[in-house]
């Protein structure tokens, strides 16, 4: 794998997909955002998003990872990762909606295989078609990394359940139709179940969530107060909630990395371009200064290492290998490397890198979040250390 700001792919099929995706992101989608005045701070609505879902579906990108029976192309993890990297590198505000990561098929995760025919027909197939949107409600104010400390409960009630609790950081909540809610089974210490909850149900309230440091308005709190959910909306069996919610943990952990790699790639290119065109004190370009050259060299090396190890792990995953330790390592290294790259990018951009509205400033905040989201760096180190104990 060679180093490039616009990677090429030896796989002809993947190369074609990447080219078509770049054309859409840089052309039609960029025009759409500009025409509607969409920025990273915009409060996105269904009216903003549904045209992107439909168009991305028409182009074959929305849910492209799914099996062919659901309208996808059954992409390998490596191919999906390459597309996610391009999303991260494109700079588009609505890039997260092209593959269905924000409220769409990627957000729903691996629940299709747990769904009944009723659940497929009513919830998941409309989701795949871009007709409905979902959010995922697992995290609580006092239950982040330790999800087993959640207090949301599900009480059996005749032929259904009554859910009570308060979920936070439900991404895509502001424009979702339903949520995948994980709750503790009442009367148990360690049994959790997953439910499909219509967000307009009596006893369910969707309120504006905390605004993350990225400044995006994409989070909601889901408040459940004796909210009745029919038994038909139980995903899988009782007690399978965490297994369903955290299913494919290893692949999901790995597949979060390419988006961050793409963001770091864009930051490095923007910083390189600035160093070539910005004049330093004394009238010389920034790139003529050895101190700037060395910063860029370190940034490029971090990016190459992060990208190489991630795709190596994805190749092994596609071959059927057990890559749990490698997934922990990749999430740790990518998160820390991407943040180092953005920290240096801010430094080289100077006051512009500190100014809200500048893309580098936004990416810095976004990469700082990645060191916490989807498992903190400390959690990744715990997993790596545990794997070493049994390593042959």
Automatic annotation (TrEMBL):
InterPro entries cross-referenced by the UniProt entry: Acyl-CoA_dehydrogenase, Acyl-CoA_Oxase/DH_mid-dom, Acyl-CoA_Oxase/DH_mid-dom_sf, AcylCo_DH-like_C, AcylCo_DH/oxidase_C, AcylCoA_DH/ox_N, AcylCoA_DH/ox_N_sf, AcylCoA_DH/oxidase_NM_dom_sf
Oxidoreductase listed as a keyword: yes
Keyword RNA-binding: no
Keywords: FAD, Flavoprotein, Oxidoreductase
CDD domains xref list: ACAD
Domain Acyl-CoA oxidase/dehydrogenase middle: 135-214
Cofactor: FAD
Domain Acyl-CoA dehydrogenase/oxidase C-terminal: 239-388
Start and end residues of each Acyl-CoA dehydrogenase/oxidase N-terminal domain: 17-131
Short name of any one Pfam family annotated for the protein: Acyl-CoA_dh_1
EC number of the protein: 1.-.-.-
GO molecular function, one term: oxidoreductase activity
UniProt record similarity statement: Belongs to the acyl-CoA dehydrogenase family.
PANTHER family the record matches: MEDIUM-CHAIN SPECIFIC ACYL-COA DEHYDROGENASE, MITOCHONDRIAL, MEDIUM-CHAIN SPECIFIC ACYL-COA DEHYDROGENASE, MITOCHONDRIAL-RELATED
Protein name per its UniProtKB record: Acyl-CoA dehydrogenase family protein
Origin species: Streptomyces argenteolus
């Amino acid at each position: 794998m060679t180093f490039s700001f616009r990677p090429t792919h030896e796989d002809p099929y993947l190369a074609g997909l990447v080219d078509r995706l770049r054309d859409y992101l840089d052309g039609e989608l960029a025009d759409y955002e500009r025409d509607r005045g969409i920025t990273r701070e915009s409060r996105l609505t269904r009216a903003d998003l549904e045209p992107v879902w439909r168009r991305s579906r028409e182009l074959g990108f929305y849910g492209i990872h799914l099996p062919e029976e659901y309208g996808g192309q059954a992409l390998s993890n490596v191919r999906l990762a390459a597309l996610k990297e391009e999303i991260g590198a494109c700079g588009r505000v609505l890039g997260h909606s092209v593959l269905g990561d924000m409220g769409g098929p990627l957000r729903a995760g691996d629940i299709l295989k747990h769904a009944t025919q009723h659940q497929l027909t009513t919830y998941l197939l409309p989701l795949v078609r871009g007709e409905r949107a979902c959010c995922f409600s697992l995290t609580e104010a006092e239950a982040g990394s330790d999800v087993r400390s959640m207090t949301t409960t599900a009480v059996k009630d005749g032929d259904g359940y009554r859910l009570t609790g308060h979920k936070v950081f439900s991404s895509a909540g502001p424009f979702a139709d339903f949520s995948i809610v994980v709750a503790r089974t009442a009367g148990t210490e360690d049994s959790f179940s997953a439910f499909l909850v219509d967000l307009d149900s009596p006893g369910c309230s969707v309120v504006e969530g905390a605004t993350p440091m990225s400044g995006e308005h994409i989070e909601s709190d889901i408040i459940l107060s004796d909210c009745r959910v029919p038994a038909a909306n139980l995903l899988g069996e009782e007690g399978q909630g965490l297994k369903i919610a955290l299913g494919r943990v290893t692949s999901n952990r790995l597949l979060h990395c390419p988006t961050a790699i793409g963001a770091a790639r864009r930051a490095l290119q923007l910083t390189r371009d600035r160093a070539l065109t910005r004049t330093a004190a004394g009238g010389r370009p920034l790139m003529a200064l050895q101190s700037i050259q060395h910063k860029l060299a370190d940034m490029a090396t971090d990016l190459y290492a992060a990208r190489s190890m991630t795709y190596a792990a994805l190749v092994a995953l596609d071959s059927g290998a057990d890559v749990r330790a490698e997934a922990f390592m990749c999430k740790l290294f990518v998160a820390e490397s991407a943040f180092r790259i953005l920290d240096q990018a801010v430094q080289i951009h100077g006051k512009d890198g500190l100014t809200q509205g500048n893309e580098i400033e936004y990416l810095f905040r976004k990469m700082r979040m990645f060191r916490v989201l989807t498992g903190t760096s400390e959690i990744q180190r715990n997993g790596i250390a545990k794997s070493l104990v049994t390593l042959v």
